[in-house]
Amino acid sequence: MIVLRARRALVEGSLRPAAVVVDGSRIAAVLPFSDAVAAQEITLADDEVLLPGLVDTHVHVNEPGRTEWEGFASATRAAAAGGVTTIVDMPLNSLPPTVSVPFLATKRAAAAGQCLVDVAFWGGAIPGNGSELRPLHDAGVVGFKAFLVDSGVPEFPPLPDPRPALRELAEFDGLLIAHAEDGALITPAGGRRYADFVASRPRASEDSAIAGLLAAARETGARVHVVHLSSADALPLLAAARADGVRVTVETCPHYLALTAEEVPDGDTRFKCCPPVREADNRDALWQGLVDGTIDMVVSDHSPCTPDLKRLDSVDSLCGDFGAAWGGIASLQIGLPIVWTEARARGIDLADVVTWMSRRPADLVGLTSKGRIEPGADADLTVFAPDATFAVGALHHRNPVTPYAGRTLHGVVRATWLRGTVITDGEAPRGRLLSREDARV
């Protein structure tokens, strides 16, 4: 038995003094600060806060097949360093993609024995694999990812009409998570001017695709989730649909909350992602959407690649070309400090930030023993110093390309606990490969 005493711990949605009693891998009790006695006691420093381990439900690990972009060993090491104790791996960018039960088995075999944190898996919904959805669900995936526009990789084609998949998912209450952009409203992008790239993927392309997804969800009764929302113009659509009974949830990402189109230098493709980072007024509206509850959660959409694919140092005419560069931003290790830095400047409580990044994503995928400090939950914990600062330098991501390089952030993760034990450098991986069965524990 271990007792962790913290003058500030995130319990039941607020920060308060607490003694968290850990028995094996689980939290046994949450008591007043001075209560409980155990053979091993740890008292956090005055500047530290005890948080639940974060849950990141949007991570592109890419292994197997594109492991040179990112792999389970490096991704989970980065997660642990950033206070993230559970990730959910996206079904695309790996080869093969996770669109069938045999391919899920291939993915799980690649991950086995490599993970420093717990890992769950999304399945994929693509044209022609409708008969695979229930078997994948039964095999343990937490839901299904679909692209409503070209995904950027040929082995994961778009699903422009999600209704057939949604009808199938409604039969067993499966969840569809959708990259929502309308390809008919996207124009070819090329060149070094960031403004041209943003104009090529306008807010209207997201708004149109989201409207179509909501109509399909209303028609079928299925659950849907909008990934990486960047267009604040879609917020009224989402709020109205939810008020009408459509079962929809929404996420946004650190880059949409911290970065702005105005600050992106021409040719700096480290900032490229799809949908794009937009203007400052849009960023402010996304923050309001989080505060008022229209947006449910914040997750990373960690999608790294090798440096050459960013076209930063290319010797040909495509150097710094936003059309040619891979779209994806690496932030798994630093998501909490990124979001907290912006939130504290806006007067938003740390408790809200952590709820958006722990309990809400855990609930999305049914992992209700994760993302909370309460009796019976997994003892996944993060020791965080919210007032400490650091400059972003070397990261554990396999490839170091990130738009946050050199940026000063508030909030330092000082320790991460996975199921009752601190994760230390050099230890043998003990992360579990989770399935839907774990959601019922």
Care to describe what's here?
25% of the residues lie in helices and 22% in strands. Strand 10, helix 4 and strand 11 form a beta-alpha-beta unit. The longest helix is centred in the middle third of the chain and has 18 residues, at 203-220. It contains twelve helices and 17 strands. The chain has 441 residues and is an alpha/beta fold. It is globular. Strands 9-10-11-12-13-14 form a six-stranded parallel β-sheet. Strands 3-2-1-4 form a four-stranded mixed β-sheet, with helices on one face.
Write the layout of secondary structure elements.
Blueprint: E1 2-11, E2 14-23, E3 26-31, E4 40-43, E5 49-52, E6 54-59, H1 72-81, E7 84-89, H2 101-111, E8 118-121, E9 123-124, H3 133-139, E10 144-147, H4 163-170, E11 175-179, H5 194-200, H6 203-220, E12 223-226, H7 235-243, E13 248-252, H8 254-258, H9 280-291, E14 297-298, H10 335-345, H11 350-357, H12 359-364, E15 381-391, E16 408-418, E17 421-422
Parallel strand pairs: 1-4, 6-7, 7-8, 9-10, 10-11, 11-12, 12-13, 13-14
Antiparallel strand pairs: 1-2, 2-3, 5-15, 15-16, 16-17
Helix pairs in contact: 4-6, 10-11
